[in-house]
Amino acid sequence: MAETADVVVVGAGVVGCSVAYYLSRQGVKVKLVERDGIGSGASTHATGFLSLLGAAFS
Predict the structure, then answer these.
(1) 14 burial level (CB within 10 Å; 0-12, 13-18, 19+)
(2) CA proximity to 30, closest of 10, 15, 14
(3) What percent of the chain has pLDDT over 70?
(4) pTM above threshold 0.70
(5) pLDDT value, residue 58
(6) Cβ of 42: how many Cβ atoms within 10 Å?
(7) DSSP letters along 1-58, please?
């Protein structure tokens, strides 16, 4: 079964998740793709970033 989306967001870091979230709130069908876990890349290692994603997204 093929999936369709209006927008594909590549990368589920802070920015990618924010973009996907706000687009979906506007009714845009969003596909969010990430190679690893959500927020597992540079977002969790950035200076001053506080990870609130929790173990559910590990």
Answers:
(1) middle
(2) 10
(3) 62
(4) no
(5) 47
(6) 11
(7) -----SEEEE--SHHHHHHHHHHHHTT--EEEE-SSSTT-SGGGTSTT----S-GGG-
Q: Percent of the chain at pLDDT above 90?
A: 40
pLDDT by residue (tens digit) across 24-52?
A: 999 999 999 998 877 666 665 665 555 55
φ and ψ at 33, to 5 degrees?
A: -120, 140
Q: Please state, in angstroms and rounded to a whole number, the distance separating the CA atoms of residues 56 and 23.
A: 23
Separation CA 58–CA 55 (nearest Å): 5
